[in-house]
């Protein structure tokens, strides 16, 4: 009869709890609206042009032939890192590559020494090394700090996923307790009763327990999904970082090339100014020139030398900037081995390039995954209001050394536990509102990134077309300015020209040469920006 009354009491309690849980679930799940559809596919890999919807098959084939470098970097697998990598030269202190830190899973690796230069020889430039753009691009992903940190973030996200998956497994705990006590109350009782009482107690107790969550209302599954999407975000961010640093190092390399060519042009301008100065001084000594012409030549030479000094400083800065981005040894000076020349022209039309950009941009994939993470976290908050059912089993042992028996007693306990949050003061509702805001932010940033991808393509196309036209114009202008300078000198020698005409021709020749170099560098930079826009650099 007692058992029947207990079951009736349990049934009545559950009948009262179920309506309360249903009301809470309806209250917090209704505000979580379904998210709108997104037009892009959740594919983080770069797609070939043949996968782009188009009506003309010939356009697809031309697009594939024009971008052979787009797919290579994304398909390149990352080499496994098993040992810390030492990066050093013969004179600078060893530097530990931080990406080699996660060698032993679940163990704290030995701390690496953080070093900085301490002697002048460790920072003195002793060697000069010429590198090509291809070598720089191969090196930057291995040594750049941003790329290393992005790979570390992937390792951290992978460890967070393992932590979430551990929630599926049972937990085993153990405890052991020993105590020694001399009871004052027992001794007092013995004195009052004139009896001999053992007041010393030294028990030894041990317990081993197993606990397993049978049902958690979906908390663990939503947590695992959020961790999986966080790992995908870290991987997509590595792709974004890779493209960003490659564009940055390409820009730095082009800046170094520009500085090298600028020095060549300024040196030629100094030579022309020195030649003009010698000619005017000779004419002054011969009595056919004036002091005014000599002064003009002196000023022109001083200005040319001033421009040369500025160009030399810009070259040194460009070299150090490239070394900084590559994390190159501090004792090696980098120079550009490639000569300035226009890269091949981009053949695909702007429309297909825009489609390729919005399919390949890692920023779009990151925003989609951020939205999924926000929704999974909202579901986790709602699931905490649901029932949590777990089973447990404990085995315990006990022994009392003071009794003199020396025996060990054993026992066990098995059972199930039901936990249910009936009211949390609105905490879950507030958390859901926060995650809804995160979802809205991710959707807004997705649209912003899509518009930015289109703008980047259009801007690069416009600049590339303009720079291509400037190359043709500036090349012709250089030849014309050189010929004009030759004629101006002939006119001056014949006595029908002036020194001012020669100085003007020299200035025009220098400006035309600078414009030609700037046009080529700008054209190559626009091509690099275009490849970055489609995540194909």
List keywords for this structure.
single chain, 537 residues, alpha+beta, Outer membrane efflux proteins (OEP), 2 domains, 4-stranded antiparallel sheet, two-stranded antiparallel sheet, 60% helix, elongated, disordered N terminus
Question: Mind explaining what this structure looks like?
Answer:
This protein is of the alpha+beta class. It folds into two domains: 24-169 and 216-386 and 421-533, Outer membrane efflux proteins (OEP); 170-215 and 387-420, Single Sheet (Outer membrane efflux proteins (OEP)), CATH 2.20.200.10. Helices cover 60% and strands 12% of the residues. It has twelve helices and ten strands. The chain has helices at residues 2-29, 57-66, 72-75, 133-143, 145-165, 184-193, 219-286, 291-326, 350-360, 362-383, 427-494, 499-533, and strands at residues 86-87, 95-96, 127-131, 171-178, 181-182, 200-201, 203-215, 332-336, 387-400, 409-420. The strands form four sheets. It has a four-stranded antiparallel β-sheet with strand order 4-7-9-10, with no helix packed on it. Strands 1-2 form a two-stranded antiparallel ribbon. Strands 3-8 form a two-stranded parallel ribbon. Helix 4 (133-143) runs antiparallel to helix 7 and helix 7 (219-286) packs antiparallel against helix 12 (499-533). The model is unreliable at 1-96 (pLDDT under 50).
